[in-house]
Amino acid sequence: MSVEIETVFHRRARSRNFLVSSLLLSALGILAAELRKYFRRRATARALSHLSADELKDIGLARTQFGYRELHQDRLGADYWNN
């Protein structure tokens, strides 16, 4: 009986350790993914900041006071966006 109880406790302890380690690995994976997204956004913002207004227009973007916006010249016409 004692060996059986000890085995059950060891199995539960191993299961708990596995659960904790898998949760830790999941959290680290999520953190790594968020850091990659953050650094990718920073690199994009840095690259866009070095472009002139004409270069931004060539790729369909315009600089605003809040960042960048897409140029939708097909909807409102080029004159609307040039003002």
Walk me through this protein's architecture.
The protein has helices at 2-49, 53-58, 73-76, 78-82; strands spanning 61-64, 67-70. The chain is mostly helical. It has a two-stranded antiparallel ribbon with strand order 1-2. A hairpin with a 2-residue loop joins strand 1 (61-64) and strand 2. The model has no long low-confidence stretch (mean pLDDT 83).
What are the defining features of this structure?
single chain; 83 residues; mainly alpha; two-stranded antiparallel ribbon; 76% helix
Brief sketch in words of this structure:
With 83 residues, the chain is mostly helical. The protein contains 4 helices and 2 strands.
* Arrangement of strands in the largest sheet: 1-2
Low-confidence region ranges: none
The helix content, as a percent range, equals: over 70%
Overall geometric form: rod-shaped
What is the number of helices?
4
Distance between the termini: 86 Å
Return the structural class. Answer: mainly alpha
Q: How many individual domains?
A: 2
Number of strands: 2
H-E string: HHEEHH
C-alpha-based Rg, rounded: 27 Å
Query: Per DSSP, what share of the residues sits in E-state strands of 2 or more residues?
Result: 5-15%
Mean pLDDT: 83
Largest sheet: 2 strands, antiparallel
